[in-house]
Amino acid sequence: MAIQSVNALFVALLAVALSATTGRALFAILIAGGFHALLVYADRVKSSVLHAHVIYADSHIVPMLLLDPSLVFGFIVKSPWHAVIGLTVTVATLVFAWKGHKLRAPAVARLLVTVGSLAIFATFLFSARGIAPTDPQWNVFQQTDETPLYGVMANIVYGMRASAPVAPPGDPNSQQRLISSLPIRNAEAKLTRANTITPDIVIVQSESLFDPSTLCGTHDDSQLPAITSGRHGDLMVPVFGGRTLQTEFETLTGLPVAMFPNANFSYLDLIPGSLNALPRELSRLGYRTIAIHPNDRNFWRRSYAFPAMGFDSFIDIRSFSGVDVGAGGHVTDKALMTAALSEIDADKGPSFIFVITMENHGPWGGHGTSELDDYTGRAQEADAAWRNLTEQLAKRGRPAIAVLYGDHLPGLPETYSSRCFKDGQPPERHMPPVAVWSNIPGDDRPPPTASFLIPGWILDTAHLPRSQLFAINGAIGLIAEQDGMAAVDRLKTDYAASAWNWLRNSDPVLHSRAPLKPNAIAKMLTHSLVKGHRGSWTPQDLLIDATPTPDAAVVLQLDGKTRSITFRPYPGSSSCDETDPIEVRVDGRVVGRIRGAPGANLATINTTDASKLSLMSTPESGVAKCQSTVIRVVQVDR
């Protein structure tokens, strides 16, 4: 009971402070009570979708959610009319309360009450002991599950008091103890040694992926036939229903985030500077490292995190257009796979492409479609895109490795409340699938078993040299494969401490290439046939006529400092399936021809030391396939 008083104390203190400040008691009570009610409602929604409760760390991501409210709004309000009605009633009530009775207390007395209330309020929130009762049973590692026992506000207050800069677990001897342990030494001895193969590497993080056939009342045949027909399994990930960045961070760094209880949003909490992550490891081996994600580049702080981990290019939502968007309102997985393959084709050297999909992002259902039917349809699109990716990689004949995994299970509250899982386990006990493909001779290893073990698995399968961090990561992955995750758990504390130290370095954080701003593109153009912005075109789009004449060329004047430019060609009309080739000249020399199609074909042109680049349509016959081609300037590497 004493613990529950924290929730009432919060509302009372806030109401007193607001009442003294405004002189309107009813208004203050409504604001304080309404704020607490909003927290309770947010906690209920989060619990139903993510199977976790609201915690203090959630306050850090509110600004990011405002970048794309659609990612969460559909889970909160099923109909826009509900939001309109609720907002109208709330505003009307607050206006009525504001115009009501006003306290007649002297201004000095109200000021003293306000200052006193705020002082008590600050002590209540920020003091380690504070005036609120404490409970030694409250556990920072389990704070997402503590709300039913303590209440929403009490759980948030305790989380605030427990928040501190992330420190590595373990002790000074962790590293030596880990390296000299018998299981690690035995596993390292079994791993393959490096050779001269440098395969292309594609990792696909598939949004909210799971197989609906695992649910009761569904056919036993997999709804993901391409994924389950090859090497596949279940992947242990740190989250359920959301917080993609946690799984993503583990995959790219090899660090298990569960060992850091205050790192609920790893890109905010665990990237103090440059990291020796997988992209940087591959970059040092001569790889081009490219991240592709069709969302705002600032969401989850990826605009900082990706360069810090060693990506030299980040292709975001601005590189795509309306023709790439599927029925769910997001860029399709098919378009992303096309973009990944285009980036591989753009260079003769090895590439590492990390794809983060969005097509299967919730909410699901509506418009006469059930939640599960909508989800299943989009999951099948992800499966088809994976089949296309692996088939195209096989046709190229170059050594390649591809890994696909689900970042977490989807938040399907209606489905989970009406259907069980066939194995009888609750939803949060299930893990998303992982599938692997490669054409490396002799590669027959099963997929990795946990997201933080993917880096070592990749480097070992590719037979690439690896730093101590990823050598140990690979050894732990082999232990998990042979002896199960229970054997890994005995090493986890020492591994997390060691990995945290190995990850950090003092290299400067380089900023990934970003789409050039429209005004900068305009300065590069000396002649353009841009005829307005129709449909989804932007000022980054150049319109090229089909007529092959010098006047129809688009010319970009360069300053000799531009290393490469990435273009995205696509038909200027929805009636065209494919465009005529676009001839690309650098300083008058033909360097290639690119062709536009509805998919996200990308073409990266080397412009090192160049002063001029021109683009011109070159029909292969007397009749043009399209009257125009739109070419989007995706990125400029300087």
Can you characterise this structure?
- The protein is of the alpha+beta class and 638 residues long.
- It folds into three domains: 5-162, no CATH class; 196-445, Alkaline Phosphatase, subunit A (3-Layer(aba) Sandwich); 518-637, NPCBM/NEW2 domain (Jelly Rolls, Sandwich), CATH 2.60.120.
- The protein is 39% helix and 14% strand.
- It is built from 23 helices and 16 strands.
- Strand 3 (288-292), helix 15 and strand 4 form a beta-alpha-beta unit.
- Helix 19 crosses helix 20.
- The longest helix has 26 residues, at 25-50.
- Mean pLDDT is 80; it is low at 526-536.
Please render the helix and strand layout as text.
Elements: H1 5-22, H2 25-50, H3 62-65, H4 70-76, H5 80-98, H6 107-126, H7 147-150, H8 152-162, H9 174-180, H10 182-190, E1 200-206, H11 225-229, E2 231-234, H12 244-253, H13 266-269, H14 278-284, E3 288-292, H15 302-309, E4 313-315, H16 333-345, E5 351-356, H17 371-396, E6 400-406, H18 413-418, E7 433-438, H19 454-461, H20 468-483, H21 485-489, H22 492-503, H23 518-524, E8 525-527, E9 541-545, E10 554-557, E11 564-571, E12 582-586, E13 589-594, E14 603-606, E15 612-617, E16 628-637
Parallel strand pairs: 1-5, 1-6, 3-4, 3-5
Antiparallel strand pairs: 2-7, 6-7, 8-10, 9-16, 10-15, 11-14, 11-16, 12-13, 12-15
